[in-house]
Write a structure and sequence with these properties.
By secondary structure, the protein is an all-beta fold. It has one helix and 30 strands.
């Protein structure tokens, strides 16, 4: 795979940063969070996951499709800083120690986060989708809805350490940074508990009595609380004791949550929702939780990245033409839509 730093992409890119305009001009809806910046980033290719490299102050927006590439932005200003052409992936992560980045292409792409030069490609099976970096073991977990469900890669040298059957189709994974990884298993409605060092499944926490079709997963590591998001039969977050799997409570969310995060500075679990909202769940105590705010964002802004230095949440979306008559709904019952409007790809920064 030929790829590398694309200076022309940076020079030619234009980002219009607006105060609060366009499709994202919304009131905070009765809470402390609001849209701080709207960057009309443009560019070609579909989009799925977004990733923040907090240490290096970079934001990654992988773009898929025929014109796919890995776009890189300044995490504070949302101005373009680089691009890796030809890397058509759904997700990306960076190891801040080795400065190695990984993108969920097939084969997997490993690149240098400083120079944005591709270092190697790594053969993996399945259909790479979600991706997570575990700082405790310095390994990258590549998740697939097909076997093998998890492929574990050494971030230092890019070797495949192991593949693991996690017991079903994985969605979002989260590490406690101390040797345990949790993965939301979508089709089985449970949370897999993984020994990160041994790379073995220790337990499954069954939450099927409360939800089906799992998606995002967030963790309050200090208080050992998991926030597991489920799309049906009604959209909700299932709040679980991370030590024993007991369900603490459930709360409603917006429609079609995808990825989520927990901000320990504000004690908020935050979900991005395909329906065009972002929900903030306030942890008042380890046993008391409330829906603090539902913030309108943009339709299809379904993934997020948390900047733990500033507390800002980044999400992205675009404008789409109307769906043609009779078009079938999208995955997970999402509304049908037409093609993306050229130049409409947008990055949103949310915060206080």
């Amino acid at each position: 795979m030929k790829s590398g730093f694309c200076a022309a992409a940076v020079i030619g890119a234009s980002v219009t940063v607006l105060a609060l305009s366009g499709a994202a001009q919304n009131e905070p809806a009765g809470g402390p969070n609001k849209i701080l910046k709207v960057a009309k980033a443009g560019g070609d290719g579909g989009f799925d996951y977004i990733f923040a490299d907090v240490d290096a102050r970079r934001l990654y927006t992988p773009r898929s499709g025929a014109m796919g590439h890995l776009a890189v932005w300044n995490l504070d200003t949302l101005e373009p800083v680089g691009d890796i052409a030809g890397v058509r992936s759904g997700g990306a992560v960076v190891d801040p120690k080795s400065h190695h980045g990984f993108s969920t292409t097939k084969p997997l792409t490993m690149w240098d986060s400083g120079t944005l030069q591709v270092l190697k490609t790594i053969t993996v099976n399945g259909r790479p989708d979600g991706i997570m970096f575990d700082p405790y073991t310095e390994r990258v977990w590549v998740l697939s809805h097909e076997q093998p469900y998890a492929t574990i890669v050494d971030a230092k040298d890019g070797t495949v350490v192991k593949t693991l059957d996690v017991g079903g189709e994985p969605e979002q994974a989260v590490s406690d940074g101390k040797g345990t990884i949790y993965i939301n298993i979508s089709d089985k409605a449970n949370i897999a508990v993984i020994d990160a060092k041994a790379m073995t499944v220790k337990a499954h926490y069954d939450v099927s009595s409360q939800g089906q079709r799992g998606s995002g997963l967030a963790l309050d590591d200090k208080n050992h609380v998991l926030f597991a998001y489920y799309r049906g039969p009604s959209p909700k977050v299932i709040i679980v004791n991370a030590e024993n799997g007991n369900i603490i409570t459930t709360l409603p969310t917006g429609v079609n949550v995808d990825t989520v995060a927990f901000n320990p500075a504000t004690m908020e679990a935050i979900s991005a929702e395909n329906g065009g909202t972002m929900t903030f769940i306030k942890e008042n105590s380890p046993t008391n939780f409330t829906v603090e705010q539902t913030l309108p964002t943009m339709p299809v802004a379904k993934t997020l990245a948390l900047d733990t230095k500033t507390g800002h949440v980044l999400t992205m979306s675009a404008e789409f033409a109307p769906a043609p008559p009779g078009a079938p709904p999208g995955r997970a019952g999402r509304p049908a839509r037409g093609p993306m409007v050229p130049g409409s790809f947008t990055i949103l920064m949310v915060g206080r």
